[in-house]
Design goal:
Strand order of the largest sheet: 1-2
Helix content: 25-40%
Number of domains: 1
Radius of gyration: 15 Å
Number of helices: 5
Distance between the termini: 22 Å
Largest sheet: 2 strands, antiparallel
Structural class: mainly alpha
């Protein structure tokens, strides 16, 4: 809630979250929901209440960024930053500076990934 509050915490925020922030910024959006940052993690009551209505968080979203590969949150999103993991899929620049890829194999790729073992990301 405080401008710049995350700036001095960069080492504690996973690369996938930083990459998601970059995507949101490049899309011209203002807000990003990240469970680990938006929910008080050591408040069992709040967590239980929010988990019970988690479908509403996603239903109201403009888009959902799926980190469909990588072993953990530190893996980053492929191709977002020069230091992010490289991908070997065709990409299209949808707006200056933001390229996305499309795959018809999404379901198959996600089924084989760590992502499929989680309740949500």
């Amino acid at each position: 809630m405080q401008p710049g509050a995350l700036a001095d915490k960069q080492a504690f925020i996973a690369n996938t979250i930083w990459d998601s922030m970059t995507v949101v910024r490049k899309l011209g959006e203002r807000y990003l929901w990240v469970d680990s940052l938006c929910l008080v993690q050591d408040d069992a009551v709040e967590l239980q209440e929010c988990v019970a209505i988690m479908d509403l968080f996603y239903e109201m979203a403009s888009l959902t960024i799926v980190a469909g590969d990588g072993e953990d949150a530190w893996a980053g999103l492929q191709g977002v930053e020069p230091t992010s993991r490289m991908m070997n899929r065709p990409v299209k620049e949808i707006i200056p500076g933001l390229k996305l890829t499309k795959t018809s194999e999404m379901e198959s790729l996600l089924r084989k990934s760590v992502y499929s073992t989680r309740a949500w990301t």
